[in-house]
Amino acid sequence: MAVVGPSGCGKTTLLNLMGALDKPTAGKIFLEEQDISGLPETNLYKIRREKVGFIFQAFYLIPTLNVLQNVLIPTLPLKAKNKYYSDRAKELLKIVGLDGKEKRRPGELSGGEQQRVAIARALILDPVLILADEPTGNLDPKTGQKIFTLLRELNLTGKKTIITATHNQKIKELCDRVISLKDHPMNS
Ligand SMILES: Nc1ncnc2c1ncn2[C@@H]1O[C@H](COP(=O)(O)OP(=O)(O)OP(=O)(O)O)[C@@H](O)[C@H]1O
Ligand SMILES: [Mg+2]
């Protein structure tokens, strides 16, 4: 699903609400039929980590960690199953086409490659929902298209729900659903 609308209309805010990064001042938010809007922070961080994968426009990789370590970040609080997750991270890096680049640091990758690391990181704990805030906004059209094709595959074969905020007309056309937000009243 695509969330579209002019700059400042609230796409990022909506995604942050859906991913429990932000709390609503009114209304309710249901994730897998659970109302998450009133939950305390101690429950929310678990939901964010286990149920939601975030992909941000600016990637937010940790520059001092290598590719593999970046993908493993969401698993750090779990402490157990180290081997399982490092095998899974390597497998995900293969899927996103970064086989052989596990030891590189983010600064040694192209923008598209960094975004693919972020996608692998979003998938490491097998979330039910992937929120992608303009995941192709920083990429050239061809690389953006490749990233989107990858997300679409994850949706179709991996049965993931993917919600993406985008200004990209092509991406919008390829989505099953498009939600248009009206302009923020303060911006008009
Ligand atoms: N932390 C915040 N505190 C107060 N207002 C905020 C905050 N973050 C965003 N806003 C305001 O909320 C509105 C929606 O912002 P948001 O970032 O969700 O827009 P957007 O649709 O994602 O825009 P863009 O396409 O530029 O990314 C804007 O008017 C913005 O100024
Ligand atoms: Mg935004």
* Level-1 CATH class name: Alpha Beta
Rg, Å, rounded: 17 Å
Number of helices: 7
Strand order of the largest sheet: 4-5-6-1-7
N-to-C CA distance: 26 Å
> What's the CATH topology name?
Rossmann fold
Could you say which overall geometry the principal axes of the C-alpha atoms support? Answer: globular
Uncertain regions spanning at least 5 consecutive residues = none
What does it look like?
- There is one protein chain.
- With 188 residues, this protein is an alpha/beta fold.
- The protein has one domain (2-23, 30-187): Rossmann fold (3-Layer(aba) Sandwich), CATH 3.40.50.300.
- Helices cover 39% and strands 13% of the residues.
- The protein has 7 helices and 7 strands, in the order βαββαβαααβαβαβ.
- It has a 5-stranded parallel beta sheet with strand order 4-5-6-1-7, sandwiched between helices. Strands 2-3 form a two-stranded antiparallel sheet.
- The longest helix is centred in the last third of the chain and has 16 residues, at 141-156.
- The radius of gyration is 17 Å and the shape is globular.
List keywords for this structure.
188 residues, five-stranded parallel sheet, 13% strand, binds adenosine-5'-triphosphate, alpha/beta, Rossmann fold, binds magnesium ion
